[in-house]
Amino acid sequence: MHHLPLAPISVTLLFPGFLCQCDPPVEVPESLIAWTGACLSIPCRYQSCLLNPRRSNNPTINSLAWYLTPGYDPEKKNFSGTVLYKHSAAISPDFAGRVRFLGELERDCSLQLSDLQASENGLYGLRPITSNPRQKPEERMWMTKISVNVMGKRESPGLPCRNSLKIHIPPHPLL
């Protein structure tokens, strides 16, 4: 009887949470409903793979931008739209004094708009700009979209905008 030589076998075990996919890198609601003249808060938080500073191979957030009616321009190879908020940059004059970024670059990416207008109905987009310390510097082309339906004036007055937003977005169940 002949025996074949044993070859080393490579086995990869995957445990939930061990390898983290960051696509999309943020958690936001798919859609929101608001009324004309109301305060709209868009809750947003970064995925855990962007939050672990101890793992040096995790991507880090350098900046972010919130857009109304975002789109991708293939010629410029960049996103465009009405800028609601952009870290360290000017925003659209139509939103000056009405938009507040409630988060920071570490955990929370929530946005708040006051005195919502009917023309602000539509698609909103958040673009976190990340880099990976183990790779050459580059921008990842992520755009997370949220649909906002702005309805007519509400019969009873809504609550005024507050300085902070306490949110809870339930974690996705493991499959």
TrEMBL record:
SUPFAM superfamilies xrefs: Immunoglobulin
Domain B-cell receptor CD22 first Ig-like: 37-138
GO cellular component, one term: early endosome
Record's keyword annotation contains Membrane: yes
Membrane topology, as annotated: Single-pass type I membrane protein
Location(s), subcellular: Cell membrane
GO molecular function terms noted in the UniProt entry: CD4 receptor binding; protein phosphatase binding; sialic acid binding
Signal peptide segment: 1-22
Keyword annotations from UniProtKB, A to Z: Cell adhesion, Cell membrane, Glycoprotein, Immunoglobulin domain, Membrane, Repeat, Signal
Keyword Chaperone: no
Gene Ontology biological process: B cell activation; cell adhesion; negative regulation of B cell receptor signaling pathway; regulation of B cell proliferation
Name recorded for this polypeptide: B-cell receptor CD22 first Ig-like domain-containing protein
